[in-house]
Design a protein that fits this description.
The complex is a heterodimer of chains A (161) and B (177). In chain A, 75% of the residues lie in helices and 0% in strands. By secondary structure, chain A is mainly α. Chain A has one domain: Ferritin, core subunit, four-helix bundle (Ferritin). The radius of gyration of chain A is 19 Å and the shape is elongated. The termini of chain A are far apart. Chain B has a two-stranded antiparallel sheet. The mean pLDDT of chain B is 88. Chain B has 177 residues and is mainly alpha-helical. Chain B is built from nine helices and two strands, in the order ααααββααααα. The chains are: A mainly alpha (161), B mainly alpha (177). At the A-B interface, α1 and α3 of A face α3 and α4 of B.
Chain lengths: 161, 177
């Protein structure tokens, strides 16, 4: 059975709209991470380079997976993003705080969608998995931020009187 | 500071004004509290963008958030919203009632200008509107005459408005993209 029969009518339209929005969240996050790397300097850049490289890859993979879900519902993905990224050099703490905001919003968006796809086991499973993955990301960023803060505190106390 | 730089350095950016207005509109039915998802839908942008933009608004003391990530205008933010809304009405009224611009175009133009004009300019515009629409026969006549007036460029291509620029400002706008 084609997936497009899994959900019907207005419900399906709404779900596709939400999936398009989620795809925009992921794609936009990818572009943000791409640009943020160039706002970091020196030690900050070295410390976060791998994190942002992975984030770029993962967010694009997520966007692609969502697009596949939309396609399996019989629709063509619609990508609407309105983004202009500039700004001054950025400290790692601020970059991670932005990343946390973005990931937290994506997690909330997946959570909001989950109860609305209960009639579609395949999509439900996909969204459930995304909730798990995004929860891990949010947790990961929090831990990274905490670790950076701890390193700073230790460095400060060592250099103290 | 040059005026064009002032435009960019304006404390209240166009984006910030729209975020504040969206929070005000979305929150109206919920005691002022708005969800990031609803603000994003209203502004047609992603939740991530709203969330990041909220950081600036929060820093300026215009919004407050709670532990559920709901957003509300602070008293300071509400004052900003009220002043933006007032300026939008003033500019729109001026464009429609005095200049005779169609409402749909006046909506677009007033939206672009609302957060940029100073309070004093806004107040003077209110006074000017009051003056023109006060019902005094002379003022009514003035408005009537203005509406019947059609711009005409003299042979010399200069007038009191163009001030010897050597080109007709009216024509320049006529051929603008």
């Amino acid at each position: 059975m084609r997936s497009s029969k899994r959900t019907r009518g207005a419900d399906r339209r709404d779900v596709v709209d939400d999936l398009n929005r989620l795809m925009a969240e992921e794609t936009e996050a990818c572009l943000r991470y791409f640009q943020i790397r160039f706002r970091l300097r020196g030690k900050d850049y070295a410390a976060a380079e791998q994190f942002f490289e992975e984030a770029i890859k993962e967010t694009m993979e997520h966007a692609n997976a969502i697009a596949q879900q939309i396609r399996s519902l019989g629709e063509i993905p619609i990508l609407r993003i309105n983004l202009s990224l500039g700004g001054d050099p950025m400290r790692l703490e601020a970059a991670l705080a932005e990343a946390l905001d973005v990931e937290q919003q994506a997690l909330d968006a997946y959570k909001d969608l989950l109860p609305r796809v209960t009639g579609d086991p395949a999509l439900q499973e996909f969204i459930r998995r995304q909730v798990e993955v995004e929860t891990e990301h949010v947790q990961g960023i929090r831990e990274f931020m905490h670790a950076k803060a701890t390193v700073k505190l230790v460095a400060k106390s060592k250099s103290g009187p | 500071m040059d005026t064009w730089k002032e435009f960019e350095a304006n404390e209240l950016t166009h984006s910030a004004a729209h975020h504040l207005l969206a929070i005000h509109e979305v929150g109206a039915a919920y005691g002022g509290w708005a969800r990031v998802s609803d603000i994003a839908r209203r502004l047609n942008i992603t939740r991530g963008s709203v969330s990041i933009n909220l950081r600036t608004l929060k820093k300026r003391g215009w919004v407050e958030t709670d532990e559920r990530r709901l957003v509300k205008l602070s008293p300071k933010g509400l004052r900003v919203v009220h002043s933006v809304m007032a300026k939008r009405v003033i500019v729109k009224t001026f464009l429609c009632d005095v200049l005779g611009i169609p409402e749909s175009q006046a909506d677009i133009d007033s939206c672009k200008i609302e957060h940029l004009i100073s309070h004093s300019t806004g107040q003077r515009l209110v006074q000017f509107l009051q003056f023109l629409t006060s019902g005094a026969p002379l003022n009514q006549q003035l408005l009537k005459r203005f509406r019947a007036f059609h711009v005409g460029c003299p042979e010399s291509r200069t007038c009191d408005v163009c001030k010897g620029e050597g080109r007709c400002l009216f024509d320049e706008l006529k051929h603008a993209i």
